[in-house]
Amino acid sequence: MTHMMSQPPSDVKLVRCCSIWRALEDVGDVPTMLILEAFWLGERRFDGFQKRTGLLKALLSQRLKQMVAAGLFEKRLYCERPPRYEYVMTEKGRDLYWVALAMLRWEQKWGASKAKFVVHLNHKSCGATHIDPVPYSLTAQEEFTARDVAWEHGPGMGWVTPRHSRRRKPRGEEAGAENNLLDVILRVLGDRWASLILRSIFTGFRKYDEIQKDAAIATNILADRLQWLIDMGLIHKRLYSEAPPRYEYRLSEAGIDYYPVLVMLMVWGDRWYLTPEGPPLLLFHRETGKPLQPVMACSNCHAPLAPADVDFTIEPVDGEGRQVFATD
């Protein structure tokens, strides 16, 4: 049950339920993100998903059922004898495109040292090749970063009793197949707790107790995820009191640049999980106070990117980060 109020009651353990929280309920784990990536790369059938993602068949079957139930996919019969099915993305699933572009942007900038592939995007509408998808505000007609944005609770902000997930954080080979394009960013967004910790830090909660209360994460999970995010290079610890020693957690440059991923996830969640009261969070330009209208846009013409207007090529990278070009 969602409680519509500005602050939760002190005697009840509740957590802020913004659109990011709601969206992570459906897409906030690695197998789901691997399946979505496989779909974007052209897979439609169970065997194709299994080959590209490397997921065990039982896990893949379970996640596909959940994604159909969540309205991301539809299951369609393409052969009657024997009955065989393929998966078609719904409008709700297609609407994750900006989230995918924000993830790709971060991965190619911050995960390049570990990249196995490089993706080149071409924008058919303006004719530009090798474009970058950039976070762009239609209101200000300019690109934005986390430092440009202020926020406040919106009319739809609610409080929910947290349901703790048993999902484990993927490590190493558990994260999926070796041919996935999104590696580091997929593991971060695919770990629901890590994303909620970053949400807390972005909204001003930097101390351990503050983060724990805001995200309602068990202390053992919180300690593990904080160290993991430090090891991944997205946050760092800063001593703010020496006696006794106390620390706060700050975003690194890579962590700050994760912001567009959360914003696009919020945009998606606002559309598909919006309450009658309105959006849970309101974003503004810090300098002008005008509402932020965020999109992922073409780095050349700054028009919002749509799947039908963008094509891509994928090239492998060698172990030293160099592109490997195919030869005749």
In brief, what are we looking at here?
By secondary structure, the chain is of the alpha+beta class. Helix content is 35%, strand content 23%.
Uncertain parts: 1-6, 170-177, 319-328
Share of helical residues: 25-40%
Q: What would the average pLDDT be, to the nearest integer?
A: 85
What is the CATH topology descriptor?
Arc Repressor Mutant, subunit A
Considering the protein shown, what is the CATH homologous superfamily? Winged helix-like DNA-binding domain superfamily/Winged helix DNA-binding domain
CATH hierarchy: architecture: Orthogonal Bundle
Measured between the Cα atoms of the first and last residue, the distance is 61 Å
Radius of gyration: 20 Å
Would you kindly provide a written description of the structure presented here, covering whatever features stand out?
The structure is a single chain. The protein has 328 residues and is of the alpha+beta class. The chain has a single domain, classed as Winged helix-like DNA-binding domain superfamily/Winged helix DNA-binding domain (Arc Repressor Mutant, subunit A, Orthogonal Bundle). Helices cover 35% and strands 23% of the residues. It is built from twelve helices and 15 strands. Strands 1-10-2 form a three-stranded antiparallel β-sheet. A three-stranded antiparallel β-sheet has the order 6-5-15, with no helix packed on it.
